Amino acid sequence: MADSQKTLVLLKPDALQRDLLGQIVTRFERKGMKIVAMKFIRLSEEMLSEHYSHLADKPFFDSLKKFMMQTPVVGMVLEGYDAVNEIRKIVGSTNPREADAGTIRADFSMNVPSNLVHASDSPEAAQSEIERFFTDAEVFNYEKITDKYIFGEGV
Ligand code: DAT
Ligand code: MG
After folding, report:
1. Where are the beta strands (DSSP E) in 1-93?
2. CA 112 to ligand 2 center in whole angstroms
3. Does residue 101 lie in a domain region?
4. Whose CA is nearest to atom 10 of ligand 1?
């Protein structure tokens, strides 16, 4: 998997409450993204203050953190070509009503903060977010029999 990239995804409390975990994971799987880490995470206020530090001065900062602590979230690390951009494309724009049809946010949600999914927005953010939520031992390197079809140069 030369030049592949890793990105961090969180399936938010609304995804869990609405029984959409499977459908969302399926969208990443069907693209060919490899799930290299996955677990439940109970987010703390400290973790969220770091994770959403770019929003610290927004009026919705506290309610956003409360929303994210309502239930555990599902954290995932996905690997594939241009994973950061490709996953953001599949997830769609922040405001679900501005997101393109066919994206997760447009197809399954209508408002913020309940837009179902977090996805890293740059390779730098992906690296620090993966380190924030996962240890090295929790991120797996493994081969799948489909790798040559998905990541190879043709068959
Ligand atoms: P994204 O999640 O697309 O990377 P972001 O980093 O700007 O977007 O914001 C993080 C989350 O904060 C977003 O997914 C939902 C919430 N949010 C953003 N804008 C908001 C607003 N105006 N009111 C309430 N929540 C908002
Ligand atoms: Mg963001």
Report:
1. 4-11, 34-41, 73-81
2. 12
3. yes
4. 52
